[in-house]
Amino acid sequence: MLEDAGYPRYSVLPPREMDGAGSLGCEMDDIDKEAIEREAIMLRNQVWRSREQFVPIEPRGPLQRFEPDEATTTGYKVRLIHPSNAARFLGFVYLEVASLGKFSDAIVAGKIDRNARTILISQQVSREQQLFTGAHELGHAVLHRGLHLHRDRPISEPSAGDARRRRPQVEREADFFGACYIMPNNLVEREFVARFGSNKLRLNDSVAWALDHNDPDRLLQPHGWLDVEKAVSRVANYNGTGLPPLHHVFNVSVTAMAMRLQELKLIEPYAA
Ligand SMILES: [Zn+2]
Question: Residue 114: exposed, middle, or buried by beta-carbon count in 10 A (0-12, 13-18, 19+)?
Fold first, then answer.
């Protein structure tokens, strides 16, 4: 976030009291994730019901109509819920532009102007950053009605650890909304089951080997932050399914996908 002063901290979400754990620096969340996920689901459902107005964005391009029998596939749905369609549904013009300039030496990746009803996304950043930044701006549009003019640095996933604690609440809310919006719970679960056979992947020796032939022990030993979830996000052709990596399906970074998998509790840790 580049402009954190001067806008009302009004949100459609009720402010939550921080309890003692939060102030001790634990990984307590002070954002109402359930309410945010509900808002994301509601917006997606509205876009789905109005889908005749929209065309799936990429890779076909906005001028190509989809085939009717494709309408139930994950690929079609992921393209339909591109932030540009939702922005249009909300009455915003959504434009990808060559540059939005800089602010305090940082590239501006996204900008929402509520009065002008525009969301602008810079093409200077990677495609996955454009998508996540667009979804983040949607979060502001839906959750933060008091936020009128706002610019963002490139975002490719919600921040974690110390970076998360430093990030203002409205930014974390918009990040979480973005993740929920572009990685729908039901579609992530569908694609997860297609690859791993169940909506609970229990880590064991053979799963670890299938995830990473070169270094399965790394996944079974005490590991770094989201190591297993990242391996699940990036694995291609798991046990011969021939399916692409999950993060490719949703056009997001490996870390963004890993954080979503953790949020949805699809992976059970290794118990020796
Ligand atoms: Zn923001």
Answer: middle
